[in-house]
């Protein structure tokens, strides 16, 4: 199976570790307490453990993505404070996609962002939070990504996860 197909399939399940977060914390409107954020951070390890125990073709990539999608280019992320090329490229790609998707959707306590604001945010986080090569490819493709985002969110999810 080609890498892009495996990445696409892995992107469907990388955040499975969120099942360990109780709904009171996951859907909270206010800023999380230190203790609550520590619970949220555990979803990366839980997802890795769940996925690595499986024996499917894409679970190896999904497990790595789960473990590393909150690592930052500058080492400021979690859970292991990896930086730069220590972060798997699949996780770096999904980190940008995950952030764009999260910001574009309304969340408890926060309205959805306009696409222009998301673009500006991603640009400013290059070499801080995000792999600059991934950001460059994202920006090259920003028009088509924006067109996809402007369609119905359910259609986006169905297309993204088909």
Automatic annotation (TrEMBL):
Domain HD-GYP stretches: 1-154
InterPro entries reported in the protein's UniProt record: Cyclic_di-GMP/3'3'-cGAMP_PDE, HD/PDEase_dom, HD_GYP_dom
Gene3D superfamilies: Hypothetical protein af1432
Classification via CDD domains: HDc
Cited Pfam families: HD_5
Name of the molecule in the record: Response regulator
Organism of derivation: hydrothermal vent metagenome
């Amino acid at each position: 199976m080609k890498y892009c197909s495996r990445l696409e399939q892995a992107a469907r399940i990388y955040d499975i570790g969120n099942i360990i977060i109780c709904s009171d914390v996951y859907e909270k409107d206010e800023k999380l307490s230190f203790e609550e954020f520590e619970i949220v951070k555990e979803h990366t390890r839980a997802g890795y453990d769940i996925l690595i125990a499986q024996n499917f073709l894409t679970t190896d990539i999904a497990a790595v993505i789960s473990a590393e999608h909150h690592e930052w280019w500058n080492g400021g992320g979690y859970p292991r404070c990896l930086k730069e090329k220590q972060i798997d490229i699949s996780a770096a790609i999904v980190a940008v996609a995950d952030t764009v998707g999260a910001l574009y959707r309304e969340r408890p306590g926060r309205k959805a962002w306009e696409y222009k604001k998301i673009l500006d945010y991603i640009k400013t986080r290059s070499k801080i939070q995000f792999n600059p090569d991934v950001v460059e490819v994202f920006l090259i493709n920003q028009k088509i990504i924006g067109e996809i985002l402007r369609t119905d969110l359910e259609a986006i999810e169905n297309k993204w996860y088909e």
